[in-house]
Description:
Blueprint: H1 10-40, H2 45-52, H3 76-86, H4 92-118, E1 127-131, H5 146-156, E2 160-164, E3 170-173, E4 176-179, H6 185-189, E5 193-196, H7 205-211, E6 215-217, E7 230-232
Parallel strand pairs: 1-2, 1-5, 5-6, 6-7
Antiparallel strand pairs: 3-4
Amino acid sequence: MNKxxxxxxxxxxxxxxxxxxxxxxxxIGLIDELAMMAHKMKIxxxxxxxxxxxxxxxxMPFYPGPGVGGHCIPKDPxxxxxxxxxFGFKSRFIKLASDVISYxxxxxxxxLEEALKARGVKLDGANILIIGLTYxxxxxxxxxxxxxxxxxxxxxxxxxxxxxxxxxxxLKFAELNFKSLPLTKTNIEKFDCVxxxxxxxxLDYKLILENAKMIFDTRNIYKxxxxxxxxxx
Length: 233
């Protein structure tokens, strides 16, 4: 049921919206940092989150990923950070969370580079397929998508990058034109690694698992699966 909540002023109403998005960016930044920490400790952060979520009160699960996109979360908390400085207050949580999240696309590429090197493949010249370009599943929106940041970092590292996204048939990126590659057995087999950046619900993840040489799963699509070809965030 929709309900209009009355507050004392437009300023309170505005900061209410900013608080909601700031709450999310801080918690996403925290879980991203814990994901990086857990990797160093050889612990599955996804299992940890699921176990913590069994607590019946006081815990709200947030999940790591390759970054955040869209119109609100990347922008609104930083607006609040900027506005607070106008009043002589410097927020440490907001900036730190934003910095952690902004680093995630680079972190994905660094992890990918390590995994390829362990298999005797250099990132320079490696064939990489990015699955999903939009900033979140089943939404045709590329605004500030972390998948595009991953795409750009890989291109700068001179990897051969292609993509598949059922919602984005064509992409003009860095003055180059790209086309979504059909997701077929033959195409998947060509790549040194498939990076699942956005977990669209319509994708055939079984086909990817059966035919990819290596999969970097940033969205925990293959939850619970133990397979040497799967790398989790």
